[in-house]
Specification:
The complex is a heterodimer. By secondary structure, chain A is mainly β. Chain A contains no helices and 11 strands. In chain A, the strands form 2 sheets. In chain A, strands 2, 4, 5, 9, 10 and 11 form a 6-stranded mixed sheet that branches. A 5-stranded antiparallel sheet of chain A has the order 1-3-8-7-6, with no helix packed on it. Chain A is globular, with a radius of gyration of 13 Å. Chain A starts with a strand and ends with a strand. By secondary structure, chain B is mainly beta. In chain B, the strands form 2 sheets. In chain B, strands 2, 4, 5, 6, 9, 10 and 11 form a 7-stranded mixed sheet that branches. In chain B, a hairpin with an 8-residue loop joins β9 and β10. The chains are: A mainly beta, B mainly beta. The interface between A and B is medium-sized, with 25 and 31 residues.
């Protein structure tokens, strides 16, 4: 069993839909990161969470430390949100990261 | 502009021919790491460094070497590349501590034939 599990693996949505991507982890962590990878490969950090909730534009990330679970929400989804979303956890130091296998999101018109 | 720069971005090489993928960051970050990304396996950590002259193995270090002689640079060395090292490689950096944003390079596509 992977230490970091994401669901769903693939997700297709229509423009405007509310989207939720889930991440569960089995180890103690010091922080959880949500990353976005567009076609072509580049990876961008969206959020870093150690507790609670963060919001940036249409993106919201939450984490429940007791349940070892985090969610990434996208409100009013748009085709430009199409990407792979990756959950990663750091335990101990920020240098040691363990990644989920990613959720591929496609938003259609 | 905050940047992590990797070179080369694309490389096709032959088995056994030593190669180095360079990584440089301009943010004075203490932490730097190398990852490989393979279909179905996601990103896996190869090596990481917490500061100059401090490096440690990640999850898949076999066949790779690293060095951290300067704070800004963290090259990845493949002494004798093999086809199973064909992959997409990412370098990343961040400030020390667990609560800091991670900055990734644009990736290096490496094919070993």
């Amino acid at each position: 069993k992977n230490e970091v599990e994401q669901s769903p693996q693939n997700l297709t949505a229509q423009e405007g839909e509310f989207i939720t991507i889930n991440c569960s982890y089995s180890v103690g962590i010091s922080a959880l990161h949500w990353l976005q990878q567009h076609p072509g490969g580049g990876i961008v950090s969206l959020f870093m969470l150690s507790s609670g909730k963060k919001k940036h534009g249409r993106l919201i990330a939450t984490i429940n430390i007791q349940e070892k679970h985090s969610s990434l929400h996208i409100t009013a989804s748009h085709p430009r949100d199409s990407a792979v979303y990756i959950c990663a956890v750091s335990s101990g130091t920020a240098s040691k990261l363990t990644f989920g296998t990613g959720t591929r999101l496609q938003v259609t018109l | 502009e905050a940047q992590v720069t990797q070179n080369p971005r694309y490389l096709i090489t032959v088995t056994g021919k030593k190669l180095t993928v360079t990584c440089s960051q301009n943010m004075n970050h203490e932490y730097m790491s190398w990852y490989r990304q393979d279909p179905g396996l996601g990103l896996r950590q190869i090596y990481y460094s917490m500061n100059v002259e401090v490096t440690d193995k990640g999850d898949v270090p076999e066949g790779y070497k690293v060095s951290r002689k300067e704070k800004r640079n963290f090259p990845l060395i493949l002494e004798s590349p093999s086809p199973n090292q064909t992959s997409l490689y990412f370098c990343a950096s961040s400030r020390a501590g667990s609560g800091n944003t991670i900055y990734f390079g644009e990736g290096s596509w490496l094919t070993v034939v």
